[in-house]
Amino acid sequence: MYSRGFTLMEVLVVILILTLFLYGFSIGISGSLKREKQRAMTYSVKTGIEWVRVYSILKGEKLKIKFFPDHFKIYTYKNRKWKYFKRLNFPGLELRANNSPIFYPYGTVSNLFTLYVEKDGFIRKITMNINGKITIK
Questions:
Q1: Long-range pairs for 53-60: beta carbons < 8 A, 24 or more residues apart
Q2: Is the pLDDT reported for residue 1 higher than 70?
Q3: Which domains does the chain carry?
Q4: Alpha-carbon distance values, 43 to 8, 66, 71, 77, 116 (Å)
Q5: pLDDT band at 125 (very low <50, low <70, confident <90, very high)
Q6: Is the pLDDT of residue 51 over 60?
Q7: pTM recorded for the entire structure
Q8: Whole-number pLDDT of residue 2
Q9: What mean pLDDT is predicted for residues 72-100?
Q10: Taking a C-beta distance cutoff of 8 angstroms, is the pair 5, 93 a contact?
Q11: Helix (H, G, I), strand (E, B) or coil at 71
Q12: Burial class (CB in 10 A: 0-12, 13-18, 19+), 34
């Protein structure tokens, strides 16, 4: 006798296999999405620091960054005093630095720093050398 189609048991087995495959795929994706979001936030901090350096060069001003847990403040040096200039916020991030870098108009940096950026248990390290090159590890 010739039969057409699949039995109910065959269809249920295929659905079960597809469900298990999609479940495993979603678990893998959720972990990598968290890491990528944290990585993107780290790069936004790096971009903020690079912006301060470029601004210092273009405007010919000496600038300083002070790091706080979820933001950093930028100060400009005028009349022999550091004056508050701008604040860059990074909500959801934990920033910890060992120093406050000073950017000079000719492109160099003093008070080199190591900055740890933490989000959801992932920690990335940002360092800067005297020439202003920033690396993320």
A1: 53/103, 53/107, 53/109, 53/132, 56/103, 56/104, 56/105, 57/103, 57/105, 57/106, 57/107, 59/105, 60/105
A2: no
A3: 35-136 (3.55.40.10)
A4: 52, 18, 14, 27, 12
A5: very high
A6: yes
A7: 0.77
A8: 64
A9: 94
A10: no
A11: strand
A12: middle
